Amino acid sequence: MRLLPLAPGGPRRHSPRHLPACSLALLLLLGCCLGVSRVAAGSRRPNVVLLLTDDQDEVLGGMTPLKKTKALIGEMGMTFSSAYVPSALCCPSRASILTGKYPHNHHVVNNTLEGNCSSKSWQKIQEPHTFPAILSSVCGYQTFFAGKYLNEYGAPDAGGLEHVPVGWSYWYALEKNSKYYNYTLSINGKARKHGENYSVDYLTDVLANVSLDFLDYKSNYEPFFMMISTPAPHSPWTAAPQYQKLFQNVFAPRNKNFNIHGTNKHWLIRQAKTPMTNSSIQFLDNAFRKRWQTLLSVDDLVEKLVKRLEFIGELNNTYIFYTSDNGYHTGQFSLPIDKRQLYEFDIKVPLLVRGPGIKPNQTSKMLVANIDLGPTILDIAGYNLNKTQMDGMSLLPILRGASNVTWRSDVLVEYQGEGRNVTDPTCPSLSPGVSQCFPDCVCEDAYNNTYACVRTMSALWNLQYCEFDDQEVFVEVYNLTADPHQITNIAKSIDPELLGKMNYRLMMLQSCSGPTCRTPGVFDPGYRFDPRLMFNNYGGGRTRRFSKHLL
């Protein structure tokens, strides 16, 4: 299948000697993207590929089956061991990747249209300012998207599949949420349905094929950006036929927080049945196994992509990023399967990067978040980051091994819980307001599962401080140096002065925008408490603020 570009007339294929004359205004515009030093492969700016998986954890061994990916990206570049998402749910997290903003600034709070997921408001206010839109309109990049975009993309009330977000030259987007068969793609705004024939319909392989086609037919005189967003390892966990019998002796990790009661945690965690039933454990073990099976096709995709980049002579001039939109849990604190929670298994993700100037076999412990991807990729393109309102920071100095890099010591995690207005039929004993319930009456979400956290990592502290927006203003605090599995909530035993500082820092981060999101944290030498930062108007819209704690 040959790709067709979105723009009339196809991608520009003028040779450098025959480029059309540019107006002064256009030259000034393009000048915003010429700050990157030229690389060895030639004078053209580097290409970028962003590979995004769906619900792939890091804490529970999510990278284990991806041997080729680790060899071709991680071992050839840098692996970040402390990469986080600002919200442990697909649509808010993906919106953060695209905008470089925390959820309170892009206003995508859940996976529904009402929660601003691919809504008309999102399309009007945020999409024109995403980093791919800047790459295309200002930096002259060819842009290619294939796979899952946002969970409500293609909804009739939000423009349907005809809507193609600003800034994409080639658009192969999945309608709504992840599937492997029997799905519909928007191909530059036109619907194409797929069935259940593995050889032509298996989505991960379709994404691989259209990506390789793009590399074959792209312009050779402009840099390119590719975003490939796979369904794996999201449910329904449908593996390719050749992988469906693998990992039969693999089970979900029985780590210290597996199948235990969530003592001294928010009520939603405490309500989980402990110990889990045998049927629940069998179910989550099977899900864990199938998730790994689906990732093997992603591993194949990565191998094909790297080989094709090498074959066409682009590999040495291409940055490749590999990450996920959120983590996942399978039995931790007796919660069967899902994401959405504040704990490491849900908010921590893989992040591997290779590219020009990145030395092989490196591991960085720097605290990074997916809001950093947009600024990093714009920095690679040479764009002046001061012209953006992004909350994140460019990883490029870290990737290139710069010394004395001034870096953050904390990031914000925020989530707005979802519930149903009626009693869940699988859980009649609980009142309305819960959701994501399992047959044995364990619910994974609720209206007041609304929380915000400061995740702090410094030379002396590895700390997480969280507050819930409920009647209790429930607080959870974890010292991850002593308690990496987050079993013991130390909110009532930690120094009250430190607890107060973390409370103020949380309020500030929940109100931050752009540069104020990058101010020194509580444990940084330059930290100072400035109450004005808690009540700025940068973020606009509704911001949750907490003003008290339990002590």
From TrEMBL:
This is N-acetylglucosamine-6-sulfatase. One of its GO terms (biological process) is heparan sulfate proteoglycan catabolic process. It is found in: Lysosome. It comes from the Eukaryota. It is an enzyme of class 3 (hydrolase). Residues 46-383 form the Sulfatase N-terminal domain. Its EC number is 3.1.6.14. It catalyses: Hydrolysis of the 6-sulfate groups of the N-acetyl-D-glucosamine 6-sulfate units of heparan sulfate and keratan sulfate. It comes from Molossus molossus. Belongs to the sulfatase family. Residues 1-35 form the signal peptide. GO terms for molecular function: glycosaminoglycan binding; metal ion binding; N-acetylglucosamine-6-sulfatase activity. The conversion to 3-oxoalanine (also known as C-formylglycine, FGly), of a serine or cysteine residue in prokaryotes and of a cysteine residue in eukaryotes, is critical for catalytic activity. One of its GO terms (cellular component) is lysosome. Gene3D superfamilies: Alkaline Phosphatase, subunit A.
